[in-house]
Design goal:
mainly alpha, 0% strand, single chain, 18 helices
Length: 403
Amino acid sequence: MNSRWFAPMLLAGALLGWLLATFAPDQSWLFELTRIVQTTFLTALKMIIAPLIFFSLISGVLKLRQTSSMGRLGGVTLTYYFATTSIAICIGLIVVFFIHPWTAYPPLSVMPTPPSGLLSQQDASLGTLISGVLTDMFANPFSALADLNILGILTSALLLGLAAAMTLPSDSKWPDLFDQITQTIFTLARWVLNFLPLGLFAIAHQLTADVTIDTMVSLGQFALVVLGATAFHGLVVLPLMAWWLTGISPWRFFQQTNQALFTAFITSSSAATLPLSLQTAEERLGVDRNKAAFVLPLGATINMDGTALFEGIAAVFLAYMFGIDLNVAAIVMIFLVTMLASAGAPGIPSGSMAGVQVVLISVGIPLEGIALLLLIERPLDTFRTAVNVEGDLIGSMIADKYS
């Protein structure tokens, strides 16, 4: 799969749909054909999501067994990563509920019931809300897998992984087994994603009747909101946290890390930036080499502030576009699932799209919305990757000082 085909296939599908609707409205056979392709592709995506989440999360937790043996360094690092990701999601959700210019335009007429507002006026009581979330979290693992209960799958995998990490001996073969299962599922996922351009073509063709100039304007407004929230987190929140906890001023921090951040911006890959991040942390920020070698690779895997912020805003935006009313329970679900899904996003260009799928399914938003996001996803990806790497570098300084 090559990401350069995303936009061309989307535009080709939309253009063909418009031409047929304008000049050959009676050619319904092609519409039916693309509907079959779209349904098959989205069903295949849903097929791999549950096992992919379950086994990759268990494998990831088992790989982090060394964290518990590294004592304070692991505790400080994970606490920082959890805190900054939580802050990023909260910023995204708060911003999107105060700044949502796309609501001035009608949503896509895909869902049968139009939205009644950004928050339902008949939200359940706090006790009922907590009870519902806990019921989803601690569902039977097999039921969660069968029903695509994303929160249940995430919780089951996390608890099972933690229990295994605390129980298995150091020479156990189980971590390798789970890793091999995960790699097998990744191979299956790559097979499905090889047909992504064709799937996007079919989705775009199906959405042509609903996508208008207003929709494109709404998409541009969404992009501006994401950029603004990401800039606030990357230029205000993270630098102030570094200043408060390590004493380095924002100006000096950006002066010392500009090469790594620019590389992350250009490559849209925190994994590809990792060698330069390690060099920057050691030579320019004065972080101990051994500590940087632990904190930064871990951050490139689980610390995705920009990605988490993007996924939260994207879920609310697409909920409106597809006429889905979000109540408090749905918002809590978005927060929890985004927290875990962003941690599993691969540090590669457009890697957040896997997490977006998980978040959308958790609150019942059609996966067709991913086609809309992919129109503007790559430019946004550059900014959020730079923020991801910025958070990793600050985390290495904090871990170095407090461990």
